[in-house]
User: Fold this.
Amino acid sequence: MFDNLKYKYNKSKLKKNEFDFIFDKNISTDEYIVLDTETTGLNPKKDEILSIGAVKVKKNKIITSESFEIFIKPINKISDESIKIHHILPQDIQNGTTINNALEQLLYFVGNKTIVGYYIWFDVSILNRFLKQYIGSILPNKTIELSSMYYERYRKKSAHEFVDLKFDTIIDNLDIPILGKHDALNDSIMSAMIFLKLINIPIYKGAFS
Assistant:
């Protein structure tokens, strides 16, 4: 009931009717959008988005021909400290688009599909901050968190065992190939490979809790 009320409230806040399709009921059970963002920092309440990458997964296949990548020119100057995190240089985004144009293109790409990602709450949180400003509402899409999927399948078997949920550790443990440098599109493709491996691994029932 609470989810339904939240859904109706968010839809009522939409101020651009051309995007009302994101609130359509998703009847697809075999199609997902795997998404990643590169940002100026790790605070979704104040940092900016520099790039967005996404790829479609359909019928257990990664559709690389249907991928999405866009670079955004930030309002503020990129700090040296943030460059160490995302490795995006000022010249990489000097011809980037505006955040509103990027969001518009992303909404048409994602539609009402379920969004998958590694710590996807962060990506959705920072996207929602800018979406509220642009369309008045937020993404209503269902999300799937990869680190939680991984934990459910590799959960510790004793109180003393540690489950490493770092992206590179998951990649290594699942024998996923590393696709060049970490950027939004490559990370979304690697995340899609993680997702396809994990959905075929049963949840560990004998886990220590």
Q: What stands out?
A: The mean pLDDT is 91. The CA atoms of residues 124 and 196 lie 21 Å apart. The chain has one domain: 2-198.
